[in-house]
Amino acid sequence: MPQRLIPRTPPPYVDRRRPLAVHLRQPTLHPNVPRPGELLGLMGLVWATYDFNQPSNFTTLASSPAIRGRNWALWEDALTRRILARGGNPATEIVHAVASVSLMGEAVLDLCSMLDVVFLGHWFSKPMVEAIRDRSTAPHGTRVYFWTDFESLPMEHYYIPQAEEATGQIATGSNMALLSKNGLLNSYGEPLIDKFESNPVDQSPPDHNVACPHIPPHGLPPFAALAGHSYDVDVYRATGNGNPESAQTLSTLGLDPTAPFGWTISTNPWLDAAGRYIYQGFAFDNLLHEPFKGAAVTDYPDGWTAQYRSGWQAFLLAWRNFAGSDARVLTPSQWLWANSHIALDVFTTEHCNQRYLEHFFRTAALQPKLWTEIDADLSLLANSGMLAVLAFNGTLGQQDSWATTTGGPNPATNGTWGQLVARAKQLGMVDRLYVAAWQMIDGAYAFWQEGFRIPR
C-alpha cells in the first residue's frame, strides 16, 4: 500500500506556468517503432504534494521518487524536451538522488500527460488536471483517476480535504463499525484492525498519541496525524449488509441528498462548465478476495470473509449503477479501477472490469511466475475482456528484474517482455493492456522496454 507524503515546498524555478509553445519532435532514441495500437500503453501511479491553497501554482508540485530502471534515458529525453519547450530548467525539475529520480514543478504534469492512464495518489487541483488533459500526447488522451480507499482507511489526515471528505460517511457516519473478534483490543488499547500496528507510534500529545482514541465510537475525530497506521472498515454494514441500493450504500457514495460527504459530493470542485467531471473516475486500493489484516494482533470476527466480499460487491455494483446513470460521468465503462486480482470467482467483470495488478509477475507463494503462468494469465485477461495494468514493486519474486533487464530473473523460464508483447498481440489484447512504467512508491521503477508506447 503506497505511503502518503508529508507536505513540503519544493524550490521554485523561474519560469511562470504556460502551455507548450513549440512543436515536440518524435524521440530519436528509437526512431523505428510500431504504430501506437501495436504497443502496450503507459500507466503511472503518481504521488506528489503541492500547495492546495494555490491550485494554479504548478511550481509547488514535488513528487515522491522512483528508481531509475532500464532505458531510463528514454524518459529523461522526453521530459527534457517538454521542459525546454516551455522554457523550464531540466536541472531543477528532474532531480536525481543516487539510484532514484524525483520531479519538481511542472515536470510532474509533463509526466502525467505522457501517460495513457495515471492514478493520482494525492488528488491534483482542477487546474492541474486540466493541464494534464490539455497537454496529453497519449493517442486517446490521458485518463486521470483519483487514488482512494474503502476497505481500510488511514488514521492520518488525507493530504487534501476533499479526499478526506470522500470517505467521511464511512469514517464518521452511523454505518461505521470497527472490526475486532470478540471486541479484543490491540496493542494500544483499541478494538480495531490496524494493518500497520507494528509501525512505530508517536506518543507526543495531543493528537499524535495513538493510544488516545481517535475512532468514532469514542466520540472523537476519526483521523489522527498518524502516518503509517490504519483501521479496517465494516464494509458489510457500510453497504446495508451488502445491498447496492440501500440507504447506507447511497449515503457512502454521496448519492443520498442528505449526505454531507461522499465521493460524488466532495468531488464537485472538479466539474467543468457543462457540469461533468474533468477526471475519468477513481482507483480503489485493496479489492481483495480474502481480507488481509497485515500486522494487526487483533483478528476479524467469525464469518467476516463472506461479509467482506458481499460488502465490496454491493459497493462496486452501486458504482456501476451510478456511472451508467449520472450525466456528470464522461465514460461510464471506464469509471472504476481497483487494485485487485485477475480471478473472476469472487469479483466478476460486472463488479470491476479495470484492474491494477500490483504484483502481476509473482505468485501467491512470493516466487517468480513461470512463463506458462504468465501466458495463462494473459489468456484469462484476453477472454474476460478486462482492461489491466501489469505492475510490480519490490524484490519479492524477483519482480524487479522486469524493470532492470529484458524480462524475468530467468528469461528461459520466466519469459521476457518480447514474449509478453508478442503473446498480447496474438491474443488481440494490446489495446487493453497497460504497463506501470512509472510508479512513485517504495521499490518501484521508472523504466521502458521494447513494445511499450514511447513517451513524448
Description of the molecule:
The structure is a single chain. 48% of the residues are buried. Helix 3 packs across helix 4. The chain is of the alpha/beta class and 456 residues long. Helices cover 25% and strands 14% of the residues. The model is unreliable at 1-34, 203-209 and 211-221 (pLDDT under 50). The chain has a domain at 48-115 and 358-456. The protein starts with 40 loop residues before the first strand and ends in a 10-residue tail after the last strand. The strands form 4 sheets. It has an 8-stranded parallel barrel. The longest helix is centred in the C-terminal third of the chain and has 22 residues, at 304-325. It is globular, with a radius of gyration of 22 Å.
What gyration radius follows from the Cα positions, in whole Å? Answer: 22 Å
Question: What does the main sheet amount to?
Answer: 8 strands, parallel, barrel
Number of strands: 16
Shape: globular
Q: What is the H/E order?
A: EEEEHHEEHEHEEHHEHHHEHEEHEHHHEE
Low-confidence stretches: 1-34, 203-209, 211-221
Strand content: 5-15%
Mean model confidence by pLDDT? 86
User: How many helices in DSSP terms?
Assistant: 14
Describe the strand arrangement of the main beta sheet, using strand numbers: 1-7-8-11-12-13-14-15
The CA-CA distance between the termini, in Å, is 29 Å
Provide the structure class.
alpha/beta
Give helix % range: 25-40%
List keywords for this structure.
4-stranded mixed β-sheet; alpha/beta; 8-stranded parallel β-barrel; 16 strands
